[in-house]
Design brief:
Blueprint: E1 9-15, H1 23-41, E2 46-52, H2 57-66, H3 71-82, E3 85-93, E4 96-97, H4 99-106, E5 117-123, H5 132-143, E6 147-148, E7 153-155, H6 163-182, H7 184-192, H8 219-224, H9 231-234
Parallel strand pairs: 1-2, 1-3, 3-5, 5-6, 5-7
Antiparallel strand pairs: 3-4
Helix pairs in contact: 1-6, 2-4
Length: about 240
């Protein structure tokens, strides 16, 4: 790689499929292959890492109950935190998203995926569950403030042999590739990061990890340190 070329883009796949083979994983892989192909055609290098939630099920359950994350779970979260783009895939379980999928994202710091380009995908046994994506999954990522692609992908058994699924994958992958190539997530967080709330010692890119990362010059920190507020703020003339 030339010395001044940008760092490779990092793509993370989160798959909640538990069967072997997993249709959810097959779908996310197809999307990833298309997205990386598009970026490769643009001369952009991409590294891909997969977070399989099935092998982490016990770790996730223990973390929910105890609040303690295993080393394997911490590594998975770090992969997600470092990603420039995400493909998130879940099967439909009992007319809803997988509980394993929901539980994993419940464990994340609320600021971990802010402005992170994310493509949503789902598999189900019938097309009647297609709206679970828009009814449940997209609102969850909106709460997490991820930057989801306009197109999501749902695949029922009859869709796998349909040309329409390929066209939808191409459209969604194009949207994800465009967002990743623009590095829009970095632009948003660089320019507006101070407007977000962050968990101290979290894994978000700009979370405060120690005393060196804390801005002690803010009015709130001066007040906490018994330094008092500036006169203008004490008088209520500045908000």
């Amino acid at each position: 790689m030339p010395p001044h070329s940008p760092a490779p883009l990092a793509l993370a796949i989160v798959s909640a499929g538990t069967s072997d083979p997993s249709s959810t994983r097959l779908l996310t892989d197809r999307v990833a292959q298309k997205a990386t192909s598009i970026l490769d055609d643009q001369g952009m290098a991409v590294t891909t890492q997969v977070i399989e939630l099935g092998p982490l099920a016990v770790d996730i359950a223990k973390a929910i109950v105890s609040g303690l994350r295993s080393h394997r779970l911490e590594q998975a979260i770090e992969v997600l935190a470092a990603a420039d783009g995400v493909i998130a895939g879940t099967p439909v379980h009992t007319a809803g998203m997988s509980g394993l999928f929901k539980s994993f994202f419940d464990l994340l710091d609320n600021d971990l995926v802010i402005a992170k380009p994310t493509l949503l995908s789902m598999t189900g046994g019938t097309s009647r569950h297609a709206l679970v994506m828009e009814d449940q999954v997209r609102p969850m990522f909106a709460y997490l403030r991820a930057l989801t692609t306009p197109t999501s992908i749902f695949a029922a058994p009859e869709d796998w042999s349909s040309p329409e699924l390929g066209r939808r994958i191409s459209r969604a992958a194009t949207e994800l590739a465009a967002l990743m190539a623009s590095r829009v997530g970095n632009t948003i967080t660089d320019q507006a990061w101070s407007g977000y709330q962050h968990r101290f010692d979290g894994k978000a890119a700009r979370a405060e990890r120690g005393a060196d990362h804390v801005d002690f010059g803010t009015a709130l920190m001066r007040l906490a340190a018994s330094g008092g507020l500036p006169p203008a703020q004490r008088d209520g003339t500045q908000t």
